[in-house]
TrEMBL record:
Annotated ranges, domain Peptidase M24: 12-244
CDD domains documented for this protein: MetAP1 (cd01086)
Subunit structure: Monomer.
Molecular function, one GO term: metalloaminopeptidase activity
EC number: 3.4.11.18
Positions annotated to bind substrate: 83, 182
Name this polypeptide is given: Methionine aminopeptidase
PANTHER family in UniProt: METHIONINE AMINOPEPTIDASE
Cofactor: Co(2+); Zn(2+); Mn(2+); Fe(2+)
Family: Belongs to the peptidase M24A family. Methionine aminopeptidase type 1 subfamily.
Entry binding sites for a divalent metal cation 1: 100, 111, 238
Amino acid sequence: MALIKNENELAKIRMAGRIQRSVMASLAEVVKIGAVPKEIDKLAEKLIRSAGAEPAFKNYQPGGAKNPYPATICASVNNVIVHDAPTNQPLKEGDIFKIDIGVRYQGYNTDSAQTFILGRPKDKRAYELVGVTRQSLELAIEAAQTGNTLGDIGHAIQSHVEAHGFHVVKGLSGHGIGQKVHEDPHVFNFGTPGEGMHLEPGMVIAIEPMVAVSTPDLVQTETEAYASKDGSLTAHFEHTIIITSEKAEIVT
């Protein structure tokens, strides 16, 4: 797939992003103690389809996955960071709940994620973890300017996360996005300023810092999700952005 999208492609990506923003805002209103992830998933699919779009993740099978993904959202709790399918297990007091969702509009995709704290978590660092992860995404988007590199983006995330004593998880990254959910380039959450691919107007990438309290190491679960190896809490935020001649345009 082309790294540089034309104006027709960007228009479709922007529309997918508008739908995605609306859906995520609606889901955020129903995330609470006692909410059932499978019901949140049903709502997400209903909202996406009613807006004239499709769930980008449902039945999608990324490289390395044994089976197509069965749901509209990824619904990951506590130490699980990404790619867990929603269950009928109600959310509990203190849970750290992550929603990752994709929207496809007229053949073009967007992708975003958000982390929620339900009530009072047992680990008091949960608040800092979530805040630092969100801030690292904001810093990465600031670094995503024409002439900068993918290494600048990764460094912005890594340096902020590690300055607060947390860990960028290994083996997962952001990505290009367009007609496919996962396109080139890989957008790593670590890096060296000035290294890697240079950013150009028209590139569309999904930046998604994934952070754990006390380890960079992951394990894959029986459901093909990824979790912190030591069981520590994790957080995940993501936006799809368009590189422009000025600052990045956030489409989700």
